[in-house]
Every structure is written in C-alpha cells, then in structure tokens.
Design a protein that fits this description.
The structure holds two protein chains of two kinds. Chain A has one domain: Rossmann fold, CATH 3.40.50. Helix content of chain A is about 40%, strand content about 30%. A six-stranded mixed β-sheet of chain A has the order 6-9-10-3-11-12, sandwiched between helices. A four-stranded antiparallel β-sheet of chain A has the order 2-1-4-5, with helices on one face. In chain A, strands 7-8 form a two-stranded antiparallel sheet. Chain A contains ten helices and twelve strands. Chain B is an alpha/beta fold. Chain B has one domain (about 20-430). Chain B has helices at about 1-10, 35-45, 50-65, 105-110, 120-125, 140-145, 155-160, 165-170, 180-190, 430-435, 440-460, 465-475; strands at about 25-30, 90, 125-130, 135-140, 150-155, 195, 205-210, 225-230, 235-240, 250, 255-260, 265-270, 285-295, 300-305, 310-315, 320, 325-335, 340-350, 355-365, 370-380, 385-395, 400-410, 415-425. Chain B starts with a helix and ends in a 6-residue tail after the last helix. Classes of the chains: A alpha/beta, B alpha/beta. The interface of A and B includes residues 71, 105, 109 and 141 of A.
Chain lengths: ~250, ~475
C-alpha cells in the first residue's frame, strides 16, 4: 500500500530525513520509534504533505499513485489520515460541521453522493461510542478548550468517520493517562481491518502494549537503522536508545 | 514559504462582482449639481405638498453652512457635490397596478439581481419593495398587509397618503441638522421605504427592500422610516447592490426607527455595493446614518448588518434607549478586501432605567484594506442599572491589511455594568493545514473558518438572508488566505 524509497527531506536548509526506506502492506501495523530529533514527526508531516518541509530526494508510492505529487487534501481524499500530535483549535467551527464537510468532500472525490443529515448522524453516533466521546463535545468548536485526552480522542473519532486506508498516528499517546490511552488504543484496534494499515509513531513502548504492531522500526538521525517485531520495542524499553546509537556508531566506523 | 504565501494572495481568483451590470433604461434626470432649484425640482417631480418642500429647503440651507466631517479613519478624495446628479428615475409611464405593468427591462434587472417580485417571494412570504435609482418601483403585498393595518409603501407614497404620520415622525430620530450627510439627505432624498405597524400587530411577513444604484454619477439618497406602535413587531431586511463604474458613487441614506412601548423592530442589512476594482478604483461611498429610538418602556431594536461591499463604509447604526427596560442590539460583520475601507460601529445611548445593550462586531480584513470599529456606549446620569456587553473581534487575512478599534465608553452613573472584550487574530497556517489533511481544500477551509468567526452575527439574520450572506462572505474573500 505504501512504498517509501530513499526519502530525503529538509526544513529550512536542515536535512532531517536522510534516506528512508519503508514498505507497508494492507492489514499491517508498523511502529516507528526513535529518540528526540530523529525525524519521526518529520516523516509523518512529509507524508501528509506539509509545505514547510522540502523533499529533496526519493519517492513515495501510495496505492499506485505518486504521493508526493498530490496536494495535502488530495492525499487525504485518497485515504491518508494523520492524527496530529498537537491538534489545532478552530473557533466557531463545530466538530460536527467540520467532520461533515470532510466526509462529504471525500465522498465527492470518490464520486459518491454526500451523506444526508440522517445518515450522517447515524454514522456519527456509531463512531462516538467507539471513542467514548459525547455529543456535547462535538457541538463545541473544534478542539477549543479540550483537554489533551479529549483532543486525541477527537482525532481518533475523525479517523473513524473518514475510514482511511492508511492512518498515521503521530505520538498519539503523548500526554495521555492510562485510561485515555486504553480508549484510544481500543478505537484503533476496532478500526483495524485487512484493508487498511497503520503507521504508529511513538516514543514509548507503552502504547504498543495496547496497539500491537507487526513491525517496529527505529528511526535515528533521519534513517531507519533497525527493524524488527514487537520484541524490538521491548528491547528498546529495557536498554534505552543508547544501545541503538552505539550500534549505529559501530557500523559507520 | 513567504513567496508561496504571497503567490496565494496574488493569485486572486476573485469571482467577478456578479452584480456589475447596467440596465439600459431611459432615465428621467435632474441637471447635474446641487442648488435650491435642484431641491425644488425633486419636490416638484414627486408632487410633494408644500410642508415637505419647506422641510427640504430648510435642510438644504443648513447643509450649506456645514463642513464635511474629517474625523473618521478613512481616506478619500474630496467629493465634489456639484458633480453629482441628485435625481434619476427610470421612465415609467403610469404607476403600475400589477407587476405585469412594469418595464420589462426593469423586471429583467430585478431577476438578474435574483429578486423576482413574483411567486417565489410570495411563497416565502416576503413583501419586497424594490428601489432602483432612488425610486421605489414596486411594492408587493400592499393589500395583504393593509388587511392587518400594516403600511408598507414607498416614502413618496407615504408623503402623499399618510402625511400625518410622516409629519409626526420624519426627522424625529435623525434630525436634518444631525450631521453633514443627514442634512444633504433631508434636502435631496428621493425615495425609500415607509413602514408602519399598528398597535399590537405582529407583522405577518418579513418586509424587504432592495436598493440598486444604476445610472452613472448619481447619488442615492434613500430615506426610510419605520414606526412600530405599542406591542407590535416587525422584521425588516435591506439588501443592496450596484454596477461597476470607474467613478465613485455616493450613497448617503438615512434610516429612522421608532419603537413604542413593548414594540420590537429587527432591521437586517446585507450590503454588497460595488467595492471598487482590485486597484481600488471606483466603488460606492456608503455614508449612512441609521438610528433607532426605543421610545417606550420594554421596547427593543436590533440592527444586524453584513457589510461586504462599498469602497468606503461609514455608518453607525445606533439605538437611543430612552424607555425603561429597553434593549438595543448591534450585530455586525464587516468585510474589507483589496483597497476597501470601513469605519463602522454603533452608538448605544442609555437614558432610561434598567436598559440593556449588546454589541457584537466582527471585522474581517484582507488585501490592503482598512477596517475600523468605532463604538460608543454612553450611560447618562439618571440611567440607573444600565448593562452593556461589547465584543469586537478582528480577523486579519494576510499582512497588508489593517484592523482598528476605537471604543468609547462614557458612563455617568455608577450602577452601570459595562463589559468590553476584543480579540485580534489571523487564520493560522496550522489551521489551514489541519483542514487540508482532512480533505478540505484551502478555499473551503477559509470559508469554513470565516463563517465560524462570523457565526454569532450570521445567526441573527433571517434565514433567507443567512444563506446568501454566507456565500457572499466566501466570495468577497476568495483568494485572500494568508
């Protein structure tokens, strides 16, 4: 579904991604871990199409299309979703209104009729249960005054409504307590299918106890330096990132 | 990145001003310029009684002693008042009895404007009075309204048919001497709307007036008067458009509202006068004096305006809260783009006891425009227990526009509670990207965010206008995201 080849990117003259290679097939969950500054969020942003980052090399194929050629909104309509690390607030625009616009834009792109009010509400009710988000939160302005946990759950709610093919979760676990974490993870697990895939970017092993990955990759200094299964995550937890850094140094010497 | 942003700003896919067409109709015009003869000409054209002519002449003579006010945060070249035609009426043979009798060219104009004076409006229950170039051409539903005693007709007709009411109320809220433009208006107003709601009557339909300036070099000087007797209610809508011309055209109207005890008047305006081209050439000067008086206890007047057009907007719809327990409200969205300028706001004058006022002003600036809010909240010495809440929010799109706030608060009674909040913001790139990532393109995202920003005001508009107004906001700001 997603094939990243030798992806390089920089922001304002600073090279961040120095050659990423990654392949994700439908039905898989991949985790990306790494120390601060390794480029995890950059990777997520570049895939989503954030203009601040300049792609200087490599390619990304998404379901047979050249992802880098598409605008951010087209990438989204093709089925790419990014759950933001710091979801932004949009005063005056209710979540309900926002997500309805998004859902119908996607349907338009796919040549489908927009959902009418009744259908939309039905779908909304279903997905609300999934992340235990209630109506009052959705009628408020998007993310305005939401707690960290509420913002993250709102991201997962939107993901549930949009049913993406590839969902990138950018440090979705940061700032969450155990209960919120469980709710978020449960939401993700419920949405998993053999047709979609997830790229989970995280710092800590903890989330991966709940969202069990098929593959774990370690990002260091703009490159994927180690790949493995969920055992790798446990190893990292035990030994810290230093051991990876040490190994990398040894290899480059 | 900065360059890209500027590209987006430059890449103005402005929808062309949709109403910039001209109707080819013969017009009956006064000679250019303004002298006492012009005033007599206008009065004679309309067959006015002598008391009306006297009123005009008195105002004209007073105007001659006045000077253009220069205190506003606006820049414009001096207006040459001799370079304007003060009366232009489409030539119509006889007063029309039915819509079928109206000049077909005129009818086509109305249809282009999207106001069909016929079945569509009838079905939605709006009585429409269309004013082209200073003359009310048709007022629908006169008969139906007269069954409940509601008078809704052109000002010219009112002067003929209801002289007592006019004599009693005209100029009672906005005297001719009030300011330079009201003196001018009192001298040369050619038409407008008159609306009278008798005691205890809730006007069964929304009343609407449509203004359009068509002929070149003309000024439009409407005069509107609304009188709501005890316990009555009326909701009045005003919509405005004008063709594209290189020269600036002056629109100096006056609207007066009188609300008696327990009466309520809701006055909504969606103004889309030609704003001038992208270089700032041409456009309407919208210098208007609008004022309502809550004369009776427990009365209420609400002004709601969506101002997206005009090269220059200069108006302060105000409420004099004379009656005890009276309420004044002002909801405004003022949009300026390219080189437009706006200096607008309101005056809430608390005179009675236990009066309340609420001001919600949303300014949106884009392009190289300047948008100012100017408001006065005044509480008189004997106005005990007055309450005011004001909120002025500015949204800036791009970095070449300006937003200014000039709030004046004058309180002479220490039981008053006056609150003022103000915010200034930009549409953040992060917000746009968030929308993009959800599949919403930038134009739609900006429209979404702007409508969210203006929501509290838009919610005040009668439904028919609300949808139009939302679209208007989006069109006025196309291509101006920054």
């Amino acid at each position: 579904m997603l094939k990243i080849e030798n992806l390089q990117a920089r922001i304002e003259e600073k090279e961040i991604l120095k050659g990423i290679n990654l392949e994700i097939k439908p039905g898989e969950i991949h985790a990306i871990m790494g120390p601060n500054g390794s480029g995890k969020s950059t990777l997520a942003s570049v895939l989503a199409g954030r203009e601040d980052y300049e792609v200087t090399g490599g390619s990304v194929d998404f379901q047979g299309k050249d992802l880098l050629e598409l605008s951010p909104e087209d990438r989204a309509k093709e089925g790419l979703f990014l759950a933001f690390q710091y979801p932004v607030e949009i005063p005056g625009v209710s979540t309900t209104n926002f997500i309805k616009t998004a859902v119908n834009e996607k349907r338009k792109y796919q040549g489908l009729e927009p959902l009418d009010a009744a259908q939309f509400l039905r779908t909304m009710k279903e997905k609300m249960k999934l992340v235990q988000i209630d109506q009052s939160l959705l009628s408020r302005s998007l993310n305005e005054g939401f707690s960290g946990g509420e913002k993250k759950r709102n991201e997962i709610f939107q993901m549930a409504m949009l049913e993406p093919k590839l969902a990138i979760l950018d440090e979705t676990d940061s700032g969450l307590d155990i209960d919120a974490l469980r709710i978020v993870a449960n939401g993700v697990n419920e949405l998993r299918s053999s047709n979609n895939a997830f790229l989970v970017v995280t710092h800590y092993q903890r989330l991966l106890d709940y969202i069990v990955p098929d593959f774990v990759h370690v990002l260091y200094n703009g490159r994927i330096v180690r790949s493995g299964t969920k055992e790798l995550a446990l190893e990292l937890e035990e030994k810290g990132y230093d051991f990876i850094k040490a190994e990398v140094e040894k290899e480059t010497v | 990145m900065q360059e890209e942003q500027e590209d987006i700003l430059e890449q103005i896919t402005n929808s062309d001003y949709k109403y910039g067409f001209v109707t080819d109709i013969e017009a009956d015009e006064a000679p250019m310029g303004l002298t006492e003869d012009t005033v007599r000409f206008i009065s004679a054209k309309k067959n006015e009684p002598s008391w009306m002519l006297e009123y005009r002449l008195k105002a004209y003579r007073h105007w001659l002693t006045m000077e253009t006010p220069e205190w506003a945060n606006l820049t414009f070249p001096t207006i040459n008042y001799q370079d304007i035609i003060y009366y232009s009426a489409p030539k119509q043979k006889v007063a029309p009895n039915s819509l079928d009798e109206i000049d077909p060219e005129l009818r086509k104009t109305f249809e282009k404007l999207g106001i069909s004076l016929d079945e569509q409006k009838r079905i939605s229950g709006i009585a429409v009075d269309a004013v082209i170039d200073s003359v009310s051409v048709a007022t629908t539903f006169r008969e139906e309204l007269s069954k409940v005693g509601v008078i809704f007709c052109s000002m010219s007709d009112a002067i003929q048919e209801h002289p007592d009411l006019i004599k009693k109320h005209l100029g009672s809220v906005v005297p001719a001497t009030d300011n330079y433009f009201t003196a001018l208006n009192a001298a040369v107003f050619s038409d407008g709307s008159f609306c009278y709601i008798p005691k205890g009557v809730r006007c069964p339909m929304e009343l609407s007036t449509y203004f359009r300036i068509n002929a070149a070099n003309t000024g439009q000087f409407e005069r509107t008067l609304i009188v709501a007797e005890e316990g009555s209610y009326v909701s009045y809508l005003e919509g405005c458009t004008a063709p594209m011309r290189d020269e600036n055209q002056l629109h100096a109207a006056v609207v007066e509202i009188v609300a008696m005890e327990k009466a309520e008047v809701k006055y909504s305006t969606v103004q889309n006068w030609y704003p001038g081209d992208k270089e700032g050439k041409g456009g309407i000067y919208n210098f208007v004096t609008k004022r309502g008086i809550c004369a009776g206890n427990h009365s209420k007047i609400s002004w709601t305006q969506v101002e997206t057009g005009s090269s220059i907007t200069w108006k302060y719809p105000s409420v004099i809260l004379k009656g005890d327990y009276s309420i004044g409200e002002f909801y405004s969205v003022a949009v300026t783009n390219n080189f437009q300028q706006a200096d607008t706001g309101t005056k809430m004058v608390h005179l009675g006891k236990n009066t309340r006022s609420r001001i919600v002003s949303k300014g949106i600036s884009a392009g190289k425009s300047q948008n100012s809010y100017r408001g006065l909240v005044s509480v008189a010495k004997n106005a005990s227990d007055a309450r005011n809440f004001s909120q002025c929010d500015s949204l800036l799109l791009g970095d070449k526009c300006g937003a200014h706030t000039f709030p004046y608060i004058e309180v002479k009674n220490n039981t008053a509670m006056v609150e003022h909040e103000a915010t200034t913001s930009k549409i953040g790139e992060d917000q746009i990207f968030y929308c993009n990532q959800r599949g919403i393109d930038t134009e739609t995202a900006v429209a979404l965010i702007i409508n969210g920003f203006a929501k509290e005001v838009m919610n005040q508009l009668p439904m028919e206008f609300a949808v139009e107004a939302q679209k208007l906001l989006a069109i006025s700001l196309e291509g101006s995201v920054g």
